[in-house]
Specification:
The structure holds 2 protein chains of 2 kinds. By secondary structure, chain A is mainly α. Chain A is built from 23 helices and 2 strands. The chains are: A mainly alpha, B mainly alpha. Chains A and B meet through helix 8, helix 9, helix 18, helix 19 and helix 20 of A and helix 1, helix 2, helix 3, helix 4 and helix 5 of B.
């Protein structure tokens, strides 16, 4: 199926009333949680997963995807008006966006970030449509050694690119892989770590663990601080950017789109890393570097375009290889599995409506978001007055009832409680939960391909290094892992994160 | 290394504890097999070894914390942590609505900033909202109130 046929098919399913409504619902929810600090897309998608079980696979993916890229739009509103990142990926937007707001140019910053996001979303969606079928063709030739090497690369990249110590990140990924071991061994039918509990034979439930780690863990984290602080939002004057603003924003928007499109594809990439890479680039290339930090429009246009582009293209490895590139994509994989779809290179061929429908819905969703964000920005701002004291009991109730309604097992509520406490412990110890989730989702796949490859090669571990594609993936993984221990690169990585946190 | 209570040191200890537990359980219960034909224990045991090495490395390179974290809100940890368990214990025996009322109540109690009137309003509001969304929106097949218990 070529691109044109694909898009026609995609739009034909994406403009159905159900699809449009769910797309709108998804992006609205995404904007909502994007605006509100303290609740992110991972937790929201995890909480809503059980609800989407009642929908068709396409409808559920349309809605869940909308939450992710919708949050990229919403996060910028809070960043610009309140100087708080509504989402981590909007952290750099707060630097110059808030300064613009202080100069009475909040409306301009919001417009440019919405326009930039829309341009980036449109281009990145096209990248997704063109690149995915090609990549899936290559992936169809993958055997077990390639898959194992690919999962290794994915895990290493997530560790390198996520915040905090790389050693801790690796450890978290290993703990995730361990949790994935629980259940019946597919090769020998021996049960492992089931403690005599029947339900554990098919593995520990993905939904309960993720809702716990992200949803409940986040609540506990927020309850330790001063969540009651009043947030003063700046007033919005004119939304209309001047000609000069447009002229200065055009190149950053396009560069940000390019940076985000590339970084989004990489495992470990996505919205967050794209935004601060773009900020660093714009600061270096700008004709007005002295304005950065004092309200440079490039510092808003670039990162906001980049984070949306990155959010879109991070779907590429998920849809073509079945490998999640970040925590949200790991949840998407989980959503597909609970819907009975085996993620991997065959999805595009066997489920063309799903693939093209999702792509078309992303473009429609981006258009919805511009409308939702610009004229209605005042409504979103008033949401910031909702105190966390009202939000978190609701979030907790959603976590409980959502987990229970997925399979109707009380046991999963107990897993939820344990996972929530574990998630909070991880955060307290400065361990990022993203590699943990990735390891957990990939665990069964990693083991299966590892053992199958070793079985075929009769115990010869060099099999991962003698086949060309596998060798390339492994070298890439090893090279990346090595960068973690090179002092100069280490400090660069620290600088970049420090830049983003300032 | 220095401070045993630093984030890094505690992480190293956590990694080692998990690795030792997982590794010994694997050795005691599962067959390792050979690299040609791996048994069910081979992969979990390898993971334990890797995690143990990582645990030691984290401990060796442990640095004191850069900034102090806010204190743990133990009241919240206990109350929020017990809410899903309470929900699990009551959702079938009492029904959906009472289970929600109780677990949301526990959540509200965990914040000292919420007063009695406002707290009760939140409990009722959240319960009504969840019942509307899940019972009448999603249509979960669990009774709102268990007639056997209240009948």
């Amino acid at each position: 199926m070529d691109l044109f046929d694909g898009l026609v098919l995609g739009f034909s399913v994406a403009v159905s009333l159900t699809s449009l409504m769910l797309c709108l619902l998804g992006v609205t929810l995404g904007t909502l949680i994007g605006v509100l600090p303290g609740i992110g897309p991972s937790a929201t998608i995890a909480m809503l997963l059980p609800i989407t079980l009642t929908l068709s696979p396409l409808s559920s993916l349309i809605m869940l995807a909308g939450i992710y890229y919708g949050a990229q739009y919403g996060g910028s509103i809070t960043a610009i008006l309140v100087n708080l990142p509504g989402e981590p990926s909007s952290a750099v937007t707060a630097i110059d966006g808030y300064q613009m707001a202080r100069q009475g140019r909040a409306g301009v910053a919001l417009s440019i970030s919405a326009i930039g996001s829309f341009v980036a979303g449109t281009i990145a969606t096209m990248v997704l449509a063109v690149a995915s079928p090609a990549l899936s063709q290559i992936a169809l030739r993958f055997g077990s050694p390639e898959y194992f090497s690919l999962t290794m690369l994915g895990i290493i990249m997530v560790v390198v690119l996520s915040q905090g110590s790389a050693l801790k990140g690796l450890g978290m990924a290993v703990i995730g892989l361990m949790l994935g071991v629980v259940g019946t061994d597919v090769f020998t039918a021996v049960t492992r770590f089931t403690y005599g509990i029947n339900e554990f034979r098919s593995g520990i439930d993905f939904i309960a663990v993720t809702i716990g780690v992200f949803g409940i863990g986040e609540i506990l984290r927020n309850l330790e601080g001063n969540e009651g602080l009043a947030r003063a939002a700046h007033k919005i004057s004119s939304l209309m950017p001047t000609k000069e603003d447009f002229k200065r924003s055009l190149a950053p928007i396009l560069r940000g789109t390019a940076i985000g499109s590339v970084l989004g594809v990489l495992p470990g990439g996505g919205a967050f890393i794209s935004s601060f890479a773009s900020y660093a680039v714009e600061k270096r290339l700008s004709k007005y570097p002295e304005e950065f930090g004092k309200g440079a429009i490039e510092g808003v246009a670039g990162p906001e375009s980049a984070n949306n582009a990155g959010a879109q293209t991070s779907f590429i490895p998920m849809l073509t290889l079945g490998i999640p590139s970040n925590a949200v994509m790991a949840l998407m994989i989980g959503a597909m599995i609970v819907q009975g779809i085996q993620p991997g290179p065959r999805v595009i061929v066997t489920q063309p409506e799903l693939f093209w429908g999702l792509i078309a819905s992303m473009w429609i969703g981006n258009a919805f978001l511009v409308v939702l964000n610009l004229p209605l920005v005042g409504a979103w701002v008033s949401l910031l007055r909702i105190p966390y004291a009202i939000l978190f009991p609701g979030i907790l109730a959603f976590c409980c009832i959502g987990t229970f309604s997925a399979n109707g097992l009380e046991l999963e509520l107990y897993i939820l409680a344990v996972a929530g406490l574990a998630g909070y412990l991880f955060v307290r110890l400065g361990c990022s939960p993203a590699p943990f989730l990735l390891g957990f989702v990939l665990g069964p796949m990693v083991e299966e391909h590892f053992r199958r490859a070793m079985l075929i090669s009769q115990g010869d571990a060099t099999v991962f290094f003698t086949r060309p594609i596998s060798l390339a993936l492994m070298l890439l993984a090893i090279g990346l892992a090595a960068t973690m221990f090179v002092p100069s690169l280490l400090s660069l990585r620290k600088d970049v994160f420090a830049d983003a946190e300032e | 290394m220095g401070n045993w209570k630093s984030q890094d040191a505690m992480t190293g200890i956590m990694f080692l504890a998990i690795a030792v537990y997982f590794g010994t359980t694997t050795l005691l219960q599962l067959d390792l097999g050979t690299p040609e034909e791996m048994g069910p224990g081979f992969f979990p045991f390898s993971l334990s070894v890797i995690l143990a090495i990582l645990g030691v490395l984290v401990l060796l390179r442990a640095k004191p914390d850069e900034e102090e974290q806010p204190p743990v809100n133990w009241r919240a940890v206990i109350l929020v942590g017990s809410a899903p368990i309470t929900f699990g214990l009551t959702v079938r025996s009492l029904g959906l609505a009472p289970a929600l009322l109780i677990s949301v109540g526990l959540a509200v109690l965990s914040s000292s900033k919420i007063g009695l009137v406002r707290g009760s309003a939140i409990v009722v509001g959240v319960t009504v909202f969840c019942v509307l969304v899940f019972k009448f929106g999603v249509g979960v097949p669990y009774p709102l109130i268990n007639p056997e218990f209240f009948g």
